[in-house]
Structures are given as structure tokens and as C-alpha cells.
Design goal:
mainly beta, 3-stranded antiparallel sheet, 1 helix, about 35% strand
């Protein structure tokens, strides 16, 4: 990627899992698109932005689904919501729609 801001647009769904983003040789940043609003009948697009400043220029970016399972029951419970049927929430996937880049220099 070339730019100073990196974002991802993905789907928040019952099967959303945990992903990691590695930029250049920096430590991985762990995230998920899953949140307490997700249900088997309600999915939506969500944006995620790399939380650290990046210098203007070329960067190597790696995005990957991790092998860890996120505790979707705990995420729903913190918001006072129940996970009625755990089956739709069992898979751990990553669905990306778009990569968002911003650069202050013209292409």
C-alpha cells in the first residue's frame, strides 16, 4: 500500500472472527468486525482503521484471520444481549469488502 492511513471495510456477521493486521515489521494489531448488534438476521458493513500513525509512503500490509476463536457470547453479554442459538456464531471467518487508503500526495 502507498499512503498514510489504512482502513478495512468488512462484514460484521455471526460468523465474523478475529483478524490481525501487520504493517511493515510492526507488531500485529488484533481486531474483529463482530459486535453485540450482530444477529443471524442482522449483518452490516463496518469500517476498521489501523490505530497507529503511518509515515507517508509505501508500506507492506498483511491481513489474516487468526486461529483463535473470539468469545462472542461474552461480547453479547456485556451489552445485555443473549446468544440464543450458538450454531450460527460458531464459525470464525473474515469477510473483507474493501481496503481504504489515504495519501496526502496525488497519485
Amino acid at each position: 500500500m502507498t499512503g498514510s492511513t489504512l482502513g478495512l471495510l468488512g462484514i460484521a456477521a455471526p460468523d465474523s472472527g478475529e483478524f490481525e493486521v501487520i504493517v511493515d515489521d510492526r507488531a500485529p494489531v488484533i481486531a474483529t468486525f463482530f459486535d453485540h448488534y450482530v444477529t443471524p438476521t442482522f449483518c452490516r458493513q463496518r469500517a476498521w482503521f489501523y490505530p497507529e500513525p503511518l509515515s507517508e509512503g509505501s508500506h507492506r500490509v498483511r491481513v489474516a484471520l487468526t486461529a483463535r476463536s473470539i468469545d462472542k457470547h461474552a461480547i453479547k453479554n456485556r451489552a445485555g444481549k443473549e446468544l440464543d442459538d450458538p450454531a450460527p456464531y460458531a464459525p470464525q471467518r473474515l469477510t473483507l469488502c474493501s481496503i481504504l487508503l489515504r495519501s496526502s500526495t496525488p497519485p
